[in-house]
Every structure is written in structure tokens, then in C-alpha cells.
Write a structure and sequence with these properties.
Mean pLDDT: 78
Structural class: alpha+beta
Number of strands: 11
Low-confidence stretches: 27-42
Distance between the termini: 63 Å
Order of helices and strands: HEEHEEEEEEEEHE
Radius of gyration: 25 Å
Oligomer: single chain
């Protein structure tokens, strides 16, 4: 009649210690990988804009502007930006493309959101993607996006500033070339980029 033995009882002491160390390292590696994955997911998603001049990508910064980026992702899911227009606005040294306009006028998402992630030095950098809002109401967001193609300083003493929701990480040269070539565009029949579709990944 055979007698039962405890698992690993046949191993020598040093073999047991080695086994414990190996298993512990495996567990720590798995936990570490999971935490890294969670941290990476927390940095934000990427919005891919397909347009009449090519494709550009925006990395949304959900860490710095959680409510603003969530609003942009919701508008994308609703198709808000599809078939909207981007015009170059260089008057008064603004140096931005304004995206989200229709042929008849500005976007009207009218969302109530706080202002987030405003540059402390009042300077918006080339590549910044900024959420527009009503000039007389810092909490009402229109849904429009300013894409900065040249560093621009926007004083905040008479405003609350604007939320930076992310940065252009691919295709910036397409936007820069369009803006510098077309200059200031009239909102009534001026040259514009057409947003053909947007998806988030």
C-alpha cells in the first residue's frame, strides 16, 4: 500500500528555495506587465482623421484633460466631425487651423465642461489640439478644435484659456503646408480641408 507524500517533499532544501525564487519572479513579472498595460491605457487614445489632404493622427491626453478628451471621443463616436471643415485662421497672429465648421457656420455641440490643461505660460505649441469654447462663457464648449501649426501666445487675463486635449503625432506637415499655403481663409467659400471620417483606436 503506497503512502501519500507532500508535494515537492522529495526536493532538497536548496532546490525548494530555488523553486520559490523562480515562481516569485514569474508572479512579479506578470503583475508588472499588467500594471504597465494599465498605465499605457491611461495615457489616452489616438484619434485618426481622414481628410481631403491626407490622414493625421492626434494623441488624446486623457490624463491632463479627462473631461475634454472624453467629450471629443464621444463627438467622434457620434460622427460629429465627419464632413466638417477645417479653415486656416492666421488673422491677428492666431496661427491655427479651426476644425469642426460647417459651410453655414461654427459647430454647436454646446457642451458644459471645465477648462483643463491650460498652458501656464499662455503659449500653445505647434501641434497642440485645443478644444474651442464660447468666448463669453468658459464652460460652454462648441466642439470645434483648434490645431496650432505655429507657436502662438493667447493671453488669459480676459479669458479662462483653452483646454489642450492632445497633440498631432502624425501628418502634421500636411496641416502645416495647407495652413501656410492658404493663409487666412474666409469662412464663406474659402479654401478648406474636409474631414471625411474619424476613428479612435
Amino acid at each position: 500500500m503506497s503512502t501519500s507524500r507532500k508535494p515537492f517533499s522529495h526536493l532538497k532544501r536548496w532546490q525548494k528555495v530555488t523553486l520559490v525564487v523562480v515562481v516569485s519572479c514569474m508572479v512579479l513579472t506578470l503583475v508588472g506587465s499588467s500594471l504597465v498595460g494599465l498605465m499605457n491605457r491611461g495615457t489616452g487614445s489616438t484619434a485618426v482623421f481622414s481628410t481631403s489632404v491626407g490622414t493625421f493622427e492626434v494623441e488624446l491626453d486623457s490624463g491632463a484633460a479627462p473631461q475634454g478628451t472624453a467629450a471629443v471621443e464621444t463627438l467622434i463616436a457620434q460622427g460629429f466631425y465627419t464632413q466638417k471643415l477645417c479653415y486656416g485662421l492666421t488673422a491677428e497672429q492666431q496661427s491655427v487651423l479651426y476644425c469642426g465648421l460647417t459651410v453655414s457656420g461654427p459647430p454647436e455641440a454646446n457642451l458644459t465642461l471645465p477648462v483643463e490643461n491650460v498652458p501656464s505660460n499662455e503659449t500653445y505649441r505647434a501641434g497642440d489640439v485645443v478644444l474651442d469654447r464660447q468666448s463669453n462663457n468658459g464652460l460652454t464648449v462648441t466642439g470645434g478644435l483648434f490645431i496650432v501649426y505655429k507657436d502662438v501666445k493667447i493671453p488669459t487675463q480676459d479669458t479662462k484659456g483653452y483646454t489642450v486635449v492632445g497633440r498631432v503625432t502624425s501628418g502634421f506637415e500636411l496641416l502645416e503646408n495647407f495652413a501656410t499655403t492658404n493663409g487666412t481663409a474666409s469662412l464663406n467659400g474659402g479654401t478648406a480641408i474636409t474631414i471625411e471620417g474619424v476613428n479612435v483606436r
